[in-house]
């Protein structure tokens, strides 16, 4: 049974009067691990929620696998639930597959091959067997132990309640539950938050081994480099979000080239606009009908003047039409890249201060960020 894809078509979402996503489409096929990148506020988390079905688009549609898994910011359990309860829920589908296989096998053993319904039983057994193999159901309990150890939760007693865990530990447990389940499509929002280097490396390995779809949002460049087969850049671009094949290093090279093309196209259009404005204005002035004939034009002035004025008028109309068209369709100016600079940072550092801090921040607060 082939793994199903995850499809989104022409998604539009407006939040608080601002259009966060405008006509975004995405095709995520099994085996592809797609990273969503861009500055804060460009719609990465919003797109993940739309793909997961926890939020609805204003326009567009999503086709998703029925067993999609989404790493929520908050776990869907109350604080009195235990680690054991979370693991039991993660293992439920695998255990149901194994129990159903055992039940079907017993019925097949009691049913003659020429009996009515035997073929249907055999088909049901084959379908359930294929699903159990895809989910690696026989290995699920061992996988749970490995995943908990890999994410730094192996020493925690399974009787511990979620209320006794820190926020980071609960986040790791939620991630562990999804990795144990191994759904057909996995959506992750900043999955390396609260992970140390060893746990992040373990997560990279597990994600690369998944046969289904993975879509994740992250600012962790090393993680994106290690995991992703494709990247979708949601930052402003001439033609909207851009999909790049390859990892983060490949993306950086492609983005630099795309930025250069955008800047070049914008500069060329601005130059053409300026030339058209000058041409339309100057040429229109030359068409002025009250210019009298020069002495050497008087004999044939009427014929030549009419012909020249007609040619110039045609040029004016063409220039004005092109000017109006280009003003309507011109590309937006590329946003200025974020730059940090300070005369203090550029000041020479005394030799005895060379090992000290270059910059010191104290009490910095950015609402909603820091």
Short summary:
This protein has helices at 44-52, 83-110, 118-134, 140-150, 167-181, 197-209, 221-227, 248-286, 301-329, 343-346, and strands at residues 6-15, 18-28, 33-37, 59-63, 69-70, 185-189, 213-217, 230-233, 242-245. It has 370 residues and is an alpha/beta fold. It has a domain at 266-329.
Structure description:
- With 370 residues, the protein is an alpha/beta fold.
- The protein has a domain at 266-329.
- 46% of the residues lie in helices and 14% in strands.
- It is built from 10 helices and 9 strands.
- The chain has helices spanning 44-52, 83-110, 118-134, 140-150, 167-181, 197-209, 221-227, 248-286, 301-329, 343-346; strands at residues 6-15, 18-28, 33-37, 59-63, 69-70, 185-189, 213-217, 230-233, 242-245.
- The strands form 2 sheets. The protein has a 6-stranded mixed beta sheet with strand order 5-6-7-3-8-9, sandwiched between helices. It has a 3-stranded antiparallel beta sheet with strand order 2-1-4, covered by helices on one side.
- The mean pLDDT is 84.
Estimate the mean pLDDT confidence.
84
Category from helices, strands and their pairing: alpha/beta
Number of β-strand runs: 9
Question: How would a textbook summarize the main sheet?
Answer: 6 strands, mixed
SSE string, helix = H, strand = E? EEEHEEHHHHEHEHEEHHH
Rg from Cα: 32 Å
Low-pLDDT windows of residues: none
Task: Strand order, main sheet: write it out.
Answer: 5-6-7-3-8-9
Choose one word for the global shape. extended
- End-to-end Cα distance, whole Å, is 47 Å
- Quaternary assembly: single chain
Strand content: 5-15%
């Amino acid at each position: 049974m082939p793994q199903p894809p995850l499809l989104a078509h022409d998604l539009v979402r407006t939040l608080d009067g601002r259009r966060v996503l405008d006509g975004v489409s995405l095709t995520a096929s099994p085996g592809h691990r797609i990273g969503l990148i861009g500055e804060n506020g460009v719609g990465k988390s919003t797109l993940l929620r739309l793909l997961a079905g926890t939020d609805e688009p204003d326009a567009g549609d999503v086709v998703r696998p029925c067993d999609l898994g989404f790493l929520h910011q908050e776990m869907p359990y109350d604080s009195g639930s235990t680690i054991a309860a979370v693991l039991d829920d993660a293992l439920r589908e695998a255990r149901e597959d194994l129990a159903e296989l055992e039940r079907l096998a017993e019925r097949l053993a009691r049913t003659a091959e020429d009996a009515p319904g035997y073929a249907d039983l055999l088909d049901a057994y084959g379908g359930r067997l294929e699903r159990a193999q895809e989910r690696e159901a026989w290995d699920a309990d061992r996988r749970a132990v490995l995943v908990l150890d890999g994410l730094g939760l192996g020493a925690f007693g399974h009787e511990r309640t979620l209320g006794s865990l820190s926020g980071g530990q609960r986040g790791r447990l939620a991630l562990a539950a999804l990795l144990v389940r191994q759904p057909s499509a996995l959506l992750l929002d900043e999955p390396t938050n609260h992970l140390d280097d060893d746990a992040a490396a373990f997560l990279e390995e597990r994600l690369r081994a998944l046969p289904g779809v993975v879509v994740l949002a992250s600012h962790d460049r090393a993680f994106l480099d290690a995991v992703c087969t494709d990247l979708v850049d949601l930052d402003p671009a001439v033609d909207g979000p851009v999909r790049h094949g390859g990892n983060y290093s490949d993306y950086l090279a492609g983005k630099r080239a795309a930025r250069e093309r955008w800047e070049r196209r914008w500069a060329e259009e601005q130059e053409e606009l300026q030339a058209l404005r000058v041409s339309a204005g100057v040429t229109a002035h030359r068409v002025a009908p009250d210019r009298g004939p020069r002495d050497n034009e008087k004999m044939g002035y009427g014929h030549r003047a009419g012909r020249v004025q007609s040619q110039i008028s045609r040029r004016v109309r063409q220039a004005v039409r092109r000017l109006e068209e280009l003003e309507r369709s011109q590309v937006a100016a590329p946003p200025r890249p974020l730059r940090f600079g300070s005369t203090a940072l550029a000041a020479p550092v005394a030799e005895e201060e060379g090992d000290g801090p270059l910059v010191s921040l104290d009490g910095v607060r950015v609402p909603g960020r820091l």
